[in-house]
Specification:
This protein has 122 residues and is of the alpha+beta class. It contains three helices and nine strands; from the N terminus they run E-H-E-E-H-E-E-E-E-E-E-H. It has a single domain, classed as Alpha-Beta Plaits, CATH 3.30.70.240. Strand 6 and strand 7 form a beta hairpin.
Length: 122
């Protein structure tokens, strides 16, 4: 089983991939091909993707039963004690502190329950 996710790719590449895969969502392709065909498709994807990004996940004979291939993506596959994980980039740091957004402040009495309390006079 192979899953290929494309971002910002040319339309021609999407048409090329529909020869072997089903496009189950825009830019998400899935199918079952041999390892040789999978490798050739990956090479052609790298060639045609231009400024876009590609991630391929496919099944293998390993403990995890899957493997990743990544092209021009910020998340990178990393081996951690024999388990392949996707390493996420660190958040942007400005002036030595990490900026964390606080949740939006809601005005008091915005919910239906608050309206019911007001109507009941509590």
């Amino acid at each position: 089983m192979v899953v290929l996710v494309l971002t910002l790719c040319p339309v021609g590449l999407r048409g090329y991939l529909t020869r072997w895969f089903l496009e189950i969502s825009p830019g998400v392709f899935t199918g079952h091909v041999t390892s040789r065909v999978r490798d050739l498709i990956w090479e052609k994807t790298i060639e045609l993707v231009k400024d876009g990004r590609a991630i391929m996940v496919f099944s293998t004979r390993s403990e995890q039963r899957l493997q990743f291939r990544v092209h021009r993506h910020s998340w990178v596959p990393t081996d951690y004690d024999g388990v392949q994980l996707m390493m996420r980039p660190a958040p942007a740091v400005s002036s030595g502190t990490v900026e964390v957004q606080s949740p939006p402040q809601l005005r008091p009495g915005w919910s239906d329950q608050a309206r019911r309390r007001r109507a009941a006079g509590r």
